[in-house]
Write a structure and sequence with these properties.
The protein is mainly alpha-helical. Helix content is 63%, strand content 3%.
Length: 491
Amino acid sequence: DINVSGFPDDALPDHQKYEHPLVQRYATKEMSSIFSPAMKFTTWRKLWLALATAEQELGLDITNEQLQQMKDQLYNIDFDKANEYESKFRHDVMGHVHAFGDVAPLAMPIIHLGATSCYVGDNTDIIQLKEALKLVQRKLVQTLSILKTFAEKYADLPTLGFTHYQPAQLTTVGKRCTLWMQDLLLDYERVTYELENLPMRGVKGTTGTQATFLELFNGDHEKVKQLNSKVCKAMGFDKVIAVSGQTYTRKIDYHILSLLSGIAQSAYKMCGDIRLLANLKEVEEPFAKNQIGSSAMAYKRNPMRSERCCSLSRYIMSLPPSAANTHANQWFERTLDDSAIRRIILPEGFLAVDVVLNLLMNIADGMVVWPNVVHKHVMEELPFMATEVILMECVKAGGDRQELHEAIRVHSMDAGKVVKGEGKANDLLERIAKDPLFEAVHSKLDTLVDPKLFIGRAKEQTDEFLAEEIDPVLQKEEGLLGKEVVDGVNV
C-alpha cells in the first residue's frame, strides 16, 4: 500500500517547510535584495542615525561619539539576538532597538529618541518602494529598447489585423509591436511620476502631531519643522507628506500597486497576443535547444514564458483591491490591521512585476517571426479586401459599377464556400481572372493585391512613434540602458 497522507518525520527534514514559489522559483536577486531583511533593518539603523544626527544639529545633547558608534555598527546586526528581544518584548522595533544598543552601547540612550515605531517602519517602506520603482523603471526602459529593435525590423511586414479575433484590414508586424510599446510607455510615465513625487513620511510622531518632538525642543515649532526636513533630505527625499496620522496614508500603497497592475495588464496583453500568434505559427517566443515543450507530446513548442508572464500578471492584477480595502479600513489616525497584509502584497507585487519584465525582455529579444507563414495568411484573406480596388479600376476603365459589384459579390460568396465548405484555398482571384467583366484588370491583378498597398500608414506610424515617443525616452534614460540585468530567465 502507498501512504498518500504523509511521510515519516525524519524523511527529507530540510524540505518539510513550505517555500514560496515566487521567491524560490522566480524572484530575481536584485528585487529580492530590496525587500530583504538586510535592507530593511539596516535602513532602520540609518533612519535612527539620521534622526539622532539632526537632533544633535538642532541642539539636543547627543555626542559625536554616540553618532560615530551608530555609524560604525549600521551593518552589524545580530538577527538571533533581535528575535530574542522581540520575543521578550512582543515588539519588533524594540527588539531591534536593543540589538542596536548592544553593539552601540554609548548610543543606546538616544536611539529612537522621540520616535514611534512607524518612524522606522513606514519610512523604510517608502524607501524600499522607491528603490523598487527605480528597478522597475530601468527594466521598462530596457524592454522598450528591445521592442524598438523588433518594431523597426518588421515595420513594413504586412500581417493580418484582427478585430473580434476575425481577420480585418492589414497592419504590419512592427505596428502591432508599437501597440504593446504604447502601453509600456504609459507605464513608464506613471513610474517616473511616482518616483518624482513619492513623499517620505518623515518625523511625525505617534498620531502625526509631532507632540513628542515639540516637547524635546521645548516648544520650538521651527526646530521641529527643521528636524523633519533634515531627516528626509538625509534619506534622499525632497518631498515629505504634508500631514499624516501615525502612518503615511495607505492610499499611496494603492497607487503603487495600481501602477504595478498597469504593467501587468500591458504584459498580459502583449503575451496574450504572442500566444495567439504562436498558435497561428506566425510568431514564436525563444525556444532553447534542449527545451521540452510537453512531457507527452515531444513535438510541441509551447509558449511557456508568455504563459508564465500571463499567470504572474494575473496575480499582480489581483492586488490593488487588497490595498484599497486596507486604506478604506484605516480608522482615524491608525489601526494595525494594515500591517500583516502590507508585509505580503507590497513586496510580492514588486517581486512578481520584476519577473514579468525580465520575461518580457527575454521574449522580445529572442522572438522569431516566420514571414512566409505571415504572408500565407495574408493572401488567404487579401483577395476579399482587394475587391474594392478591383471594382474601382474596372469602373475607371468604363465598367458598370452595379454590374461589377454584383459579380464580385457572387464570386466572393462562392469563394467563401470553397474555403469553408471544402477546406480549399481562396480562389476568388482565379474566378475574377476568368470573368470577362473584369478584363480591364486581368493583366495587373498581381500588382493590385500587393499586401503593402493595404497597410495604410502602418509603417509611417511605426517610424513616427519610435522617433517621436520612444527615442526621447531612450535618450533621456541612456544611463539605465547600460546597466546589466543581473538575473536571466532560467525556467
